[in-house]
Amino acid sequence: MSLSDQLPPLPKLSPSLAASLPMIRLLDLPLELLIEILSYLGHKDLLKSRLVCREIYNTIKYSVELSYYIELAADDMVDGLEGRGRWTSQPATNFSKTAAADGARWNGRSA
């Protein structure tokens, strides 16, 4: 079941009310909210969304949280299903796996 299936339907707006509302762009949102929204994308979609524009690219690149998730996916250490939001439920476990692999490489052993 997708996230959109779980949400209640949006109310219908009259055309006059819709025309009177200000247009808000995604990039007009506060940075914290934009990162929160992007955090619900899977790692493949995050990588693709970097191609949309420079501002989204920089947001993903310089967000520690989003970059960490992409790194976890690159190391094949992402918990749960892709695109379900708030990616990993066990960051300490993932960190220890990464640290162990890095330590093995540092000591000349393969991970």
From TrEMBL:
Domain F-box per the UniProt entry, residue ranges: 23-72
Pfam family, one: F-box
Superkingdom of source: Eukaryota
Entry-linked InterPro entries: F-box-like_dom_sf (IPR036047), F-box_dom (IPR001810)
Protein name: F-box domain-containing protein
Source organism per UniProt: Antrodiella citrinella
